[in-house]
Structure formats: structure tokens, C-alpha cells
Amino acid sequence: MVGHRGNVKCALFTGPQDQFIASGARTMLVSASGDRTAKLWDIREPTTPACAATFTGHGEDVYSVAYHPGSLHVVTGGYDKTVRIFDVTTETMMKSFAGHDLSVAQVTFNPLGNLVISGSKDKSIKFWDILSGTCIKTFAAHLGEVTSVAMSTDGSYLLSSSKDNSTRLWDIRMMQPVQKFKGYQNISKHFIRSGFLRNRLVISGSEVRLL
């Protein structure tokens, strides 16, 4: 797909991964780029994908983008330390959340769509209320930059990865980590991603491990 003028930092299908596994439905894709934009793509015709929307407003590279569960908004995070929410229909920015001290590596919505979760190079994970725009909770257990955040489909657990050589599983109800996975070594130059796949955890970096 041609459209971005910089390196693509993130690209993912819209909606929960389990939904695609069950139905095979992959009609929309969102992407984030070093050209300071995020884009929404219609891929119903894979050979001729169409750019459905372009989201601008970041002052630097956009590292991450996620699609709202209700298909109303996308959220982005990037090098300029901000998290931003855009209206899919109008392509306008609705809110900008500032609070991280360093760049935002990844953003995601909770399943209800009322919270945005962001992981940052400042070693923290923040929970943002999308209506008020305020940070309602900060997790700061990681000793290295947070490179990945992902929520379980029921919203009960959060999975985060960091350059402190660990991946942590958080209980959202108790608001604390309940398990720590270690296994990667010397990953200072690697960008570790983690996520949920049905009832198992997939941790990915330079290699993939099932825990």
C-alpha cells in the first residue's frame, strides 16, 4: 500500500484478534508512520486498498495506533510524548493527552472503549479516561522502557513488555502485577511486543515464546 511518506511503525487489523481468527473477516487496517500521520485503510479489495482516512496532529513520528471497539475513533501515540484520539468520520483530533515524560511506544483501548492505555519509554503505563482526558492510574513497576501493552478480551488483565527483560501480567481489578515472565536477555536493541491470543499469551521479540 502506498500512502505514507515515512517508515510504517505499526499496522494492525481493526477489532479483536480472536474475531478475525473465528470469522476470517479482515476489511479494515490502521497504520502509524514516521511521516507523523496515522491512516485507516479499506482492504476489502486486497489488490487495490483504499485510504479511508488520514489522521494528523502529531509533531513527530507516530509509533502506535489502535482502533476503538465501537468503530468511532482511533488512538495514536508517538515520539512527541502525547496520546491523541481522532474521530474516524471527520478525521479530526478530539483530545490530546499529555503526561508521559518520554515517547509513547504503544497505545490500546480497553474492551469497553472508555479507557486508553499507553506504554512509554519513561517506564510507565498510564490509563486515560477518554471523556475527561485525565490520567486515572499509572503503573510504574517496570525498570526499563515499556515497549508494549495489550488487554485481554474481557478487560480483566493487562500484559506489558519492557526493556528490563520482562513481561508482566497485571490484574486490572486489583491494579497490581500478578505474574512476571523473564526469558529474553540483552534486549536493549530490540523492541519487544506482547499480546493475548485466546486463552494463551504470546510474547514476541527476536523470537516467539508461548507461556
TrEMBL record:
WD repeat residue numbers: 28-44, 55-96, 97-138, 139-180
GO BP: mRNA splicing, via spliceosome
GO cellular component terms attached to this protein's record: catalytic step 2 spliceosome
CDD domains: WD40
PROSITE patterns to which the protein is assigned, alphabetical: WD_REPEATS_1, WD_REPEATS_2, WD_REPEATS_REGION
A Pfam family: WD40
Listed InterPro entries: WD40/YVTN_repeat-like_dom_sf (IPR015943), WD40_PAC1 (IPR020472), WD40_repeat_CS (IPR019775), WD40_repeat_dom_sf (IPR036322), WD40_rpt (IPR001680), WD_repeat_MORG1 (IPR051980)
Annotated keywords: Repeat, WD repeat
Protein family (similarity comment): Belongs to the WD repeat MORG1 family.
Protein name: Uncharacterized protein
